[in-house]
Amino acid sequence: MGAIRRYPHCSHWGAYTILVEDGRIVGVEPFAHDPAPSPIIDSIREWARPDRRVLQPMVRSGWLEKRERSDRSGRGSEKFVPVSWDDATTLVADEIRRVSGEHGNASIFAGSYGWTSCGRFHHASSLLKRTMNLAGGFTGHVDTYSIAAGPVILRHTLGSDVACGGQANTLDTIAEHTETLVVFGALSPRTAQSEAGGIGSHALEKHLRRIAERGVKVVLVSPLRDDLPDWLPAEWWPIRPNTDAALMLGMAGEIAKAGRHDRDFLSRCTSGADRLLAYLDGSEDGVRKDADWAAEICGLPADAIAQLARRLVDTRSMLTVSWSLQRAHHGEQPFWAALGLASMVGQIGLPGGGVGYGYASLGGVGAHYNLGKSPGMSQLAKPIDSFIPVARISDMLLNPGASYTYEGQTRTYPHIRLVYWAGGNPYHHHQDLNRLGRAWTRPETIIVQDPMFTATAQRADIVLPANTSIERNDIAGNKRSDFILAMHKAIDPVGNSRSDFAIFDEIAGKLGVGERFNEGRDEMGWLRHLYNISRDDAAGRLGFDMPDFDTFWEQGWARCPMKTDHVYLAEFRDNPQDNALATESGRIVLGSETLARLDYADCREHPAWIEPAEWLGAAGNAGQFHLLSQQPVGRLHSQLETGEASRAMKRGGREQVLINATDAATLGIADGDTVRLSNERGACLATADLSDGIRQGVVILPTGAWFTPTGNSGLEVAGNPNVLTLDVGTSQFGQGCSAQTCMVSIERYTGASGDAFEQYHEKLVALAAA
Ligand SMILES: Nc1nc2c(c(=O)[nH]1)N[C@H]1C(S)=C(S)[C@@H](COP(=O)(O)OP(=O)(O)OC[C@H]3O[C@@H](n4cnc5c(=O)[nH]c(N)nc54)[C@H](O)[C@@H]3O)O[C@H]1N2
Ligand SMILES: Nc1nc2c(c(=O)[nH]1)N[C@H]1C(S)=C(S)[C@@H](COP(=O)(O)OP(=O)(O)OC[C@H]3O[C@@H](n4cnc5c(=O)[nH]c(N)nc54)[C@H](O)[C@@H]3O)O[C@H]1N2
Ligand SMILES: [Mo]
């Protein structure tokens, strides 16, 4: 028996120490400074198992033979041929050179969306972009799957999207000053487990306990009662999905009808309020927006809506809006309507008043935020400016040369020949995966770099096995995190995998840009360099001392300079002239000149209720259910899907779909039954989980089950909701993803169905067996 060695490390779900004996992980201990560590930390043991790892660089046999003239329908079914690293990186470099030479760099898509690991040095998509920028550029993406419609509309109406990313009122001020808190979506420890780039301490619970202790009146507006912890006293308003904008506007209309809107705030701090008021009182379209009107759309009682509207103006009130609300068709509207409602109430800029977005959607949003510079690899200057809105990937691949709009501009989709994905899993994250499957046959070549044999890697021409973060040294930390964390190498690389930096360094070398890529530094040289940039900035700009690199590395953490007790827009409220916002008017935009000129039906000149493409109130869908796909509690997206925390949430070898017990009884579905969810886009299986904490007519299937289509029909057996979801932009303005807009049918499934894990494994064996 060897001695147990301890390695400080970090992932998006928190910091921990890995205990290793004789090269094997024998324990995972939570970070001592974390009051609420995530159970997912234990699942990292899975990374050390070879079962689903890519163990060797591989090339699809048809591509190896015919290159860009291969039969692309073979992707995902044709066998892979193992190759050496030297051959693999030569093939990659040659292909980048060929495509950029023959077709120009815009025909290379390296947007490569995805969360990869939390290490900021080996950050796969940053290193890919750094490499490609040195090689002449690439087509990238803007915005994220998390937030797109939201920041686009807030940039236009608030002049910035910081209120979406953790710099609206911090939760400490809400916990101390708010009297009425309306939560649209969730304030959930489930999502607050994660933070992009790692998190040192999970602080949500502390703030929620204080809210409970102060006896704040809390209203949870969500189809799911579990969106707040059960120990926080709250009224539950089980709203119909995708109708929050109507509820917000109905309350705004009630306030206006009673003459209680803050005229002083509206005239000093907003522009275009007259357009919104004309919509609310019905002079624009003949329909008065009030509690009765909203009740009809949202499926909530009108008297409660009217009462809450009065409470908003009678007490110090705060609206929080989860990111999920804007991942829906017309997702711009709830974000803008909340801003409109808060402006009518007139408490924006006061402690505990106003509106903010994304609280607890990530662990750092609403927590104290980092005033220092967080570590990160530079992607270097972009030689070309070619991009798509992130979720328009299938549109782009299917429609080269077609035009589309974004933020008021008309642009053209490039013709993509080569796709390079590193650290993301589009066969997890994108909507309407069967449509993505059709789009995926368009590029001549697809390269995927990932530790895991994901559904995306299965469908690549060249697969490069990256190692996981525990097989190399790295550094974690982000703009919201209270710590910078050391990520020590704990085990040797699994199989023939290599670090992302080593892979790109070799490719950059073969492209003739190696020295500019690595700047003469090795792994530890880079970590020291990146840490010292943050340390020097904190000392020089903020007079904040951080330990020297060696001390940091040894102890595993360093504290960051944090901002607490932040009241968003306080200066602006006091003096809007001197603190003008970067909007068309310098004020909060409630009626937009720009959008009036653009004249879009799906994003109008003021916040409005616009019916989504699919929802419970639409005619002709009796017996169907609104499917929401929330973030999984036991893993991050598709990562560590086989880990214990993730498996604990599955039953019968597949993901569970939450369904109202009364609905289930009507359908003859019992708890634990296998059910089939379907619509015209696809079908999947799931295990029924009956509950009275979900609105009737709504079902929830978490994201992240590994895409496992089977048989000729392609029935997905693991429970991946993205075979069902809708792949359309949120609007012509924002073009975000609309994942939460999706109607499905459900039935008890009586056909044969094996264990999804086994079926996934069989597929891997068929693809990669030598
Ligand atoms: N229906 C529906 N779909 C959704 C959502 C929804 O609400 N509903 N949410 C969306 C949201 S908000 C998001 S952010 C996306 C998430 O989508 P993704 O970010 O694509 O999901 P992940 O599973 O985190 O994928 C990360 C990939 O990186 C790999 N990886 C991990 N570490 C490393 C590394 O060190 N190097 C390399 N090269 N690879 C690594 C993992 O194995 C994994 O394949 O999903 C979106 N999809
Ligand atoms: N454990 C874990 N944590 C995560 C992640 C993960 O994969 N696992 N992913 C992280 C990422 S990348 C992101 S972007 C965030 C996302 O953070 P969020 O977007 O906040 O998370 P979701 O779980 O998608 O949605 C939160 C809740 O919103 C409710 N909801 C959905 N649609 C509507 C609606 O139309 N109206 C109302 N009122 N409520 C609605 C649902 O009941 C759902 O439970 O989570 C992060 N945190
Ligand atoms: Mo996200």
From TrEMBL:
Entry-linked InterPro entries: Asp_de-COase-like_dom_sf (IPR009010), CT_DMSOR/BSOR/TMAOR (IPR041954), Molybdopterin_N (IPR041460), MoPterin_dinucl-bd_dom (IPR006657), Mopterin_OxRdtase (IPR006656), Mopterin_OxRdtase_prok_CS (IPR006655), Prok_Mopterin_Oxidored (IPR050612)
GO CC term (a single one): outer membrane-bounded periplasmic space
Keywords recorded for this protein, A-Z: Metal-binding, Molybdenum, Oxidoreductase, Periplasm
MF terms in GO: electron transfer activity; molybdenum ion binding; molybdopterin cofactor binding; oxidoreductase activity
Segments forming domain Molybdopterin dinucleotide-binding: 625-742
Membrane-crossing segments per the record: none
PANTHER family, sorted: TRIMETHYLAMINE-N-OXIDE REDUCTASE (PTHR43742), TRIMETHYLAMINE-N-OXIDE REDUCTASE 2 (PTHR43742:SF10)
Protein name: Biotin/methionine sulfoxide reductase
Organism: Mesorhizobium australicum
Lineage: Bacteria, Pseudomonadati, Pseudomonadota, Alphaproteobacteria, Hyphomicrobiales
